[in-house]
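Support request from a user on the community tier.

User writes: "When I paste my structure tokens into the form, the page sometimes reloads and wipes my input. The last time it worked, I copied everything first. Here is what I submitted, just in case something in the input itself triggers the reload:"
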């Protein structure tokens, strides 16, 4: 899917320079929401390092958008530590890496379902521990959740919903444990990214119109909109310990 992402600074007013000269590391920044956030954070003056598991995708995304990059699989603690080893200081850490883990609890493969937590909770724990004192005290950490955390369905997403909701709880706990570092979670509804298109597969031509119709805005979100919300959480110094919903109102129906 080809997403058009503008490179203008999404910040204005007192926040306009909040990211200037700051170092932002975005896990999952090589595609979709994370890449959109990376492009906008760079436009706001940050030095941005994007990380994905696919080396070639990371290199290409970085080259195309003037970003720095690393490759690491977030389910591998040693790979996380190695990717971060030569970065002296991180002002804003964003953890969006993840896949759509879908399997029914009664019949799914447990190791596969465990991945939902490995990519989210344990990847975050390993990353924060690997950075330790290199996380700026006046910086931020942003996690990803999703509308499933509040609005589950019966399509094999219970584990992903649990992993997503647990990120919101982790953010609230860490906002106290790591204070004064700010820790927040972005909770998007359905955003048209490569992930969504891959998950829907051949059914996308029928399912996407139904999803759009079921959303109060009558359309799904764009990576650029969700990316801008991520940059807002990074830049606004009073956002802390909270979950920012961006979903076109779909949680209400
Ligand atoms: N799109 C939606 O509607 C939606 C809604 C709610 C929540 N979310 C969540 O938002 C996040 C981003 O989604 P997206 O739609 O932007 O997806 P996307 O376009 O597929 O991007 C996913 C990013 O995560 C990276 N990634 C995935 N597994 C990884 C791993 N094991 N190690 C390192 N990097 C990994 C990918 O790079 P590689 O492929 O190179 O590893 C890519 O950079 C995901 O966690 C997703 O669950 C998405």
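"...and here is what came back when it finally went through:"
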């Amino acid at each position: 899917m080809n997403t058009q992402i503008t490179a203008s600074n999404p910040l204005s007013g007192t926040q306009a320079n909040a990211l200037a000269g700051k170092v932002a590391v975005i896990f999952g920044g090589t595609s979709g929401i994370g890449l959109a956030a990376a492009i906008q954070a760079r436009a706001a003056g940050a030095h941005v390092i994007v990380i994905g598991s696919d080396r070639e995708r990371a290199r290409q995304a970085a080259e195309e958008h003037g970003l720095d990059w690393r490759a690491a699989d977030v389910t591998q603690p040693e790979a996380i530590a190695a990717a971060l080893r030569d970065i002296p200081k991180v002002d804003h850490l964003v953890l969006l890496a993840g896949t759509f883990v879908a399997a029914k609890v009664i019949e799914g493969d447990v190791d596969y379902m465990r991945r939902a937590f490995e990519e989210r909770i344990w990847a975050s724990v390993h990353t924060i521990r690997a950075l330790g004192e290199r996380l700026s005290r006046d910086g931020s950490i942003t996690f990803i959740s999703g509308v499933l955390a509040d609005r589950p369905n019966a399509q094999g997403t219970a584990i992903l919903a649990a992993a997503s909701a647990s990120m919101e709880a982790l953010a609230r706990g860490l906002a106290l444990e790591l204070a004064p570092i700010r820790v927040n979670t972005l909770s998007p509804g359905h955003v048209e990214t490569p992930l969504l298109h891959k998950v829907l597969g051949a059914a996308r031509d029928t399912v996407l119109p139904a999803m759009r119709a079921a959303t109060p805005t009558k359309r799904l979100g764009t990576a650029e909109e969700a990316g801008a919300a991520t940059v807002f959480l990074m830049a606004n110094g009073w956002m802390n310990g909270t979950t920012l919903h961006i979903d076109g109102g779909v949680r209400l129906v």
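Agent notes: The reload is a front-end session timeout and is unrelated to the input. Residues 28, 30-34, 52-54, 57, 73-75, 96-99, 119, 144, 146, 188, 190-191, 193-196 surround NAP (CB under 6 Å). The helical segments are 32-43, 55-65, 77-84, 110-131, 158-177, 194-200, 204-214, 223-235. Escalated to web team.
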